[in-house]
Here is the input.
Amino acid sequence: MDSPLINIMVKAAKKASRGLRRDFNELENLQVMTKGPADFVTASDIRTQNLIYDELLYAKPDWSFVMEESKQIIGSKPNSKFIIDPIDGTTNFMHGNPNFAISIAAEVDGKLEAALIYSPITDEMFLAERGKGAFLNDKRIRVASRKKLSESILITGIPHLGRGDMKLFLKEMEILIPEVAGIRRSGSAALDLAWVACGRYDLFWERGLEAWDIAAGILLIKEAGGYVQGLNGKDNDIWSGNLISGNEDIINNLLKKLEI
Here is the structure.
């Protein structure tokens, strides 16, 4: 994919990833701060975000920015914005786990126009543009076509210190574990959505996510032929951070089991 918008985003992600790979190999020197219970930010998060912001701002000086590690920045075009997570999976990153990613989405007039999720350690670049399909390193990708839960691998988040509804999670696990081929938890919602888009997982669901966690992944899945909906069945629930994604049949089959 070589549209001007995608090229801008790729350039920013590639530039920022060089420092991330260096920091990943020098974790003993990593500066870590705590935003809340089990909610961390590293010097790498801040530096990566600043590099991406500077690169995108240079190309689109009138756009707005929604970023995890700073307040929203309103440009002269408030309806054109980049939604950025500099490191989705910070806890993985700071523990030497390579399962983290840069996530960038471009939204214009309320519609997601372009998406990038980049894994710096594996060098996997997921890209999508509205109406133009989804790609992994220039290869077209599609969501998996499995319909039966018994053949499917699901991916979700697990409540942890200070976050999530443990009782609801355990109730859902009790229902689903006997029904599926496997359930995974990776620690990066952006990569989870990207892996659903390319068929490595069959379905993703989670609650309490932020726009920067999911914006790029939502467009990737839609352009890969999949569906994304709120867990309550309404689109507004998606942007409340409560969503489910996959092919239409597997989504419906899971929701029937959970009686949502």
